[in-house]
Amino acid sequence: MNEALQRIADFDLSEEQRLVRRSVREFAEKEIAPFVEEYEREARYPTELIEKLVPLGFIAPMIPEEFGGSFVDVVSYGIICEEIARVDWVVASVISVTNSLVGGSILRHGSEAQKQRWLPPLARGEILSSACLTEPSGGTDLGNMRSTASREAGGWRIRGTKVFISHAAHAGLFFVVASVDLSKKHKGVTAFLVDPASEGISIGDFPMRTLKRDKLAEVHFDGVFVPDENVLGEVGGGFPVLGSALDMGRYSVASRCVGQSQRCIDLALGYAMEREAFGQKIGEFQMIQQKVADMVCRTEGARGVVYRLGRMKDAGVERASMEASLAKLMASEAATYNALDAIQIHGGYGLSEEYEVGRLLLEAKALEFGEGTSELHRKLIAEHALGLRGR
Ligand SMILES: Cc1cc2nc3c(=O)[nH]c(=O)nc-3n(C[C@H](O)[C@H](O)[C@H](O)COP(=O)(O)OP(=O)(O)OC[C@H]3O[C@@H](n4cnc5c(N)ncnc54)[C@H](O)[C@@H]3O)c2cc1C
């Protein structure tokens, strides 16, 4: 990032937050970036890269110190997600899932015993976790899920299939939602903490055209017994558990998108000021400059909205669903469009294996799905704006 762009990005950060950015960026560029292409080429899960987060406290910045985390303010958490995602989608995804979705849900809704059992190993990086939400019949309409949990003495038996599950083959904890009564729709949905080694769980490949190093999986639950003490929140209270995780989940994904958008700018600027055509740098052509301007505008627009959401959370605003939808939508679309522009600036090389930008396009597109699709966020924003929905 050059000086002018750095000034905008850092302008209203505190000295500590700027320091967080500098140290995470230095770490990410040295310890993660040089290895990502190799993991992707070999479709190898980046366990060794994820392990590097642990000693620096980057794996659990939203888990309080009493549980072994490295608790920081929400803006700093966003900056950690942003800077790691600037170099790698998968390692950043581990941070999101650990803190926003799984760890955050246990912190907010877990019993003391659940917190003591699961948070310290998550915070110390001894286990990873997966969120098992999406089903073959759909991920957006979770109220219509087909997975069931039927009552048994002392617990529940889960049956169903989840798809697109990140980190599943490497996780030591599954956060699973299933319905205790399908006729009750979303009021039957219940959240469970499930040991992936439980009898009845099988994990299969879910092959993707992108993010092969994430090893996305489908997870089958064939009558998996889960004891009562592993119900997270109330029976039938899975939607409130999910709902309270959403703001922070969307915030972390939006932060990751800002990181990817920035990466596209950095790569495009380098190329534009190096490549020549018609006797001049291509960055001197107005049509290339227009793309650069659009990329910077998208990124800074998104970054402003994302940082403001972080500040709202730091100020103690419990639910900020409209702001979270704005941040997620603006940032994920910025990442996709920036990848397209960055590829165009690279010409044909944008699609060659020698350059990173081509890989970033599908990885950016993938960020438009998790934590709510663009269509869902447009619907939510419009409903908030029209007064059809509460905060
Ligand atoms: C790389 C990657 C990693 C993922 N990791 C995980 C994970 O770890 N855990 C997990 O549970 N899931 C994960 N997912 C799944 C992701 O959450 C879902 O893809 C997402 O929720 C959308 O669900 P779907 O793909 O089934 O699309 P559908 O829900 O079937 O939607 C299809 C299309 O219809 C649109 N649509 C649906 N409802 C409406 C509506 N009311 N109005 C307008 N349009 C609508 C959608 O926006 C979309 O464009 C991952 C996905 C990807 C790509």
Describe the structure in brief.
This protein has three domains: 3-128, Acyl-CoA dehydrogenase/oxidase, N-terminal domain (Butyryl-Coa Dehydrogenase, subunit A, domain 1, Orthogonal Bundle); 130-236, Butyryl-CoA Dehydrogenase, subunit A, domain 2; 239-385, Butyryl-CoA Dehydrogenase, subunit A, domain 3 (Up-down Bundle). The protein is 50% helix and 15% strand. The protein contains eleven helices and ten strands.
Give me the side-by-side strand order of the main sheet.
1-4-5-8
Number of separate helices: 11
Taken as a percent bin, the fraction of beta residues is 5-15%
If classified by CATH, what would the architecture of the largest domain be?
Up-down Bundle
Which residue ranges are poorly predicted, with pLDDT under 50 across at least 5 consecutive positions? none
Instruction: Look at the helices and sheets and give the structural class.
Output: alpha+beta
CATH topology of the largest domain: Butyryl-CoA Dehydrogenase, subunit A, domain 3
